[in-house]
Amino acid sequence: MGIQGPEKNKKQICVGILAHVDAGKTTLSEGLLYLCGEIRKLGRVDHGDAFLDTYKLERERGITIFSKQAVLKTEDMEITLLDTPGHVDFSAEMERTLQVLDYAILVINGMDGVQSHTMTLWRLLARYEIPVFIFVNKMDQQGTDRDGLLKELQKRLNENCMDFGAMTAEEGEGSCKQEEREALLENLSMCEEALLETYLETGELEHGEICRLIAERRVFPCWFGSALKMQGVQEFLKGLENYTLSRKYPEEFGAKVFKIARDPQGNRLTYLKITGGSLKVKTLLNGEKIDQIRIYSGAKADSVPEVRAGEICAVTGLSKTCPGQGIGIEEESRMPVLEPVLNYQILLPEGCDPHKMLLSLRELEEEEPQLHILWDSRLGEIHAQLMGEVQTEILKSMIWDRFHVAVEFGPGNIVYKETIAAPVEGVGHFEPLRHYAEVHLLLEPGEPGSGCQFFTACSEDVLARNWQRLILTHLEEKEHLGVLTGSPLTDVQITLLTGRAHVKHTEGGDFRQATYRAVRQGLKKAKSILLEPYYEFRLEVPSEMIGRAMSDIQQMQGSFESPETEGDMSVLTGTAAVSKMRDYQKQVVSYTSGRGRLFCNLKGYAPCKNQEAVVQSVGYDSEHDLENPAGSVFCAHGAGFVVPWDQVEEYMHLDSGIDTEALAEESESWYELSEEDDEENSRLLSDISGNTSGKKYQKGYSYSGSYEDEQELQAIFERTFGSVKRDRAMYASKTTVSSQKETVRYRPGKPKKEEYLLVDGYNIVFAWEDLRELAKENIHAACDKLMDILSNYQGYRKCTLILVFDAYKVEGHAEEVIPYHNIYVVYTKEAETADQYIEKTVHRIGRQYQVTVATSDGLEQMIILGQGASRLSAQGLKKEIEDAEKNGKQEWRSRRQSSKNYLFDNVSEELSAHLEKIRMGEDQ
After folding, report:
1. Using CA atoms, how far apart are residues 141 and 133, in angstroms rounded to an integer?
2. Which pLDDT tens digit goes with each residue over 780-801?
3. Rounded to an integer, what distance in angstroms lies between the CA atom of residue 446 and that of residue 869?
4. Of 608, 585, 611, nearest in space to 596 by CA
């Protein structure tokens, strides 16, 4: 309880207890509390008097709905035990608790073994890297097989699941336990070569080494018993005490928020774990004062003045916190793995104000972020995203108890998501009178399950840092919707390419509008894919009915592996869409007469198999979604006007220079897209949007940009390199919507016609040591030497080589292009640096030709990479020149040796033999 005398020196750990529903998790918690003296009488879930079932609904239904905290104390250890929900519908509550655990207790039903939800828990524990203690419960029931269960754990969970019962057995339990202990030590020693050597020498392992193996998740200790009858619980508690380690925390303050709740008086509680330093009452956190610090144990709470690192507490006074938030040195949590897959309409009683009810439901959303309370302004409806029907019943009861409103839920619909198949550029422009902002974004497919990620590749010389940060903030603050069904966008990487602000007229809200419109315009151009949730299932049916089961899965368009036989039952494992399998449990029970069992857990999202039918049934019209416009606003003659999304490129003020087709060839693809699917989905999108013209959108290539003196630049390049031919068809793209297959197919890119090398002269001079030393004496001599070196190199490389020197400080200097032997030397005009000249050069020719820029300026490298050119550092150029000279010399030597002309080489053999005899004096 806070910091109280000598107890602060005890080993302190935070342990979570997890299980599939009805495995006996809460019963085991009761046993541990009883043994530690925290409760005087063992409660039971079925009797409704369990210590940790503090809510009325939990006692009525006999399940854990909310995570609860209890404090257990032994002679040498203090455990903060977090009891988590076991029902699948409340898995999100369980996952939020994982981020604050030091260790986890995984309870497994000895009658059922490893179930599908157990596998989900195991994967989550691996993701959060939490060491695990396993307790196999209900071993008192007939039909349980200790050895068989241990083999199942080793097969389905991890091969290093080991029975630690002998390690915590009481003294004098016979030679059998001693043999088990020796076998366990031998298995433990096999985990590490150094431990094996120690064991072979001494026959023992150090206690600290065993604790280390467990903490590193290399060993998973198991105990077997019955929590209801208190069999094996004492030994399990002893194992927790003996084989856990206290974490070391930094002195600097940090905390992780994992839960939001309210007490009976309506006070907002923020549950957090202190991960560094300490926290005192009246401390300011993010501008808010801590009013009270509570340590909960069941329904009881003790107020303390201070908590130290490693402790779990609830604080009042914070109104802006959210689960997963990091405070101080603690970082934000990663995106949760488990998320709702069903969308329910909340049906309000007559006379209930929906707007007032929406505000009330937002309170519940704070406590359960995965609810995703949504307001459909078009239909005037409130929707919530839930895990299943059990959660709807619980939510109805909670709404009645807290707000005294009797709501009902409509039928659950699948929560779809959308992504894109190929890179695309989105442009947003917002310029009503006295406002201005333009944003160019690159939208790329992300790895499945990665969500939306945001980056910037824009130079601060083009757009100031504060505007770039503002754009990234606007990207992160909103849940972007797709254009097929209006479902949330996922698995997309969005990169800021370029943008423009006006010194006088740009305001923060302008970039919000431009950013949203750029995302939307990009999605309208992209090949979109509709995603739906998939279950990973395990179906157990009598062997004589396996044919029926396989036929059902095939009709669901699911996939499965070869069936396995376990006694008189057959087991089928595979994946299927949630929309097809959500009601299949009832059919299984029916056709197997109660003998079959179906276990499902969410695997993730994958392409929808019947995308066309789903899009048609939803009937979402992206063209008329006023809250998510895709067009841009431009200004002419003192008035703003709206430009449709497919004409924005004709009006935009900037050209990012990005080649999305080239990026598509290089980027990793996740889904397959055929031309037939392209045409069909294009027709589908056109029908929904009301576009019956059948025209395909073509993006024209424009030379209009942000650079001035364009005609002068054009003339210089045509004079220097000849006429630049532009292939407009190369940049055409189609507005199409993708389908559900696995890999995107792209058209092969066009070969590059010519190769150009642009060299930043002074950058190279001062990057090469020999030229830098020469420049100290005479800068012109160093430049001349570089010109000679590059002239020789061009002879080997056979490319068009342009060497650029700064002349921007020379007053009145006009740009000069001087042929020097076989290269071109450019001296920039007044007020123009070599970097600027190279940027606009690459901007103009980078997409028609293979352009390489040699410079060691990091910012310059990033900019030219975004313009489609290749990068080469100063040292890389030097190495290439040295290699080219070396290869040239070797080739010259080989040619020189082969070009020698000897007398006897061109005469007949007879004459050659005769002359040889004369030379040797054998013939006259």
Report:
1. 22
2. 888 989 998 998 888 888 888 9
3. 23
4. 585
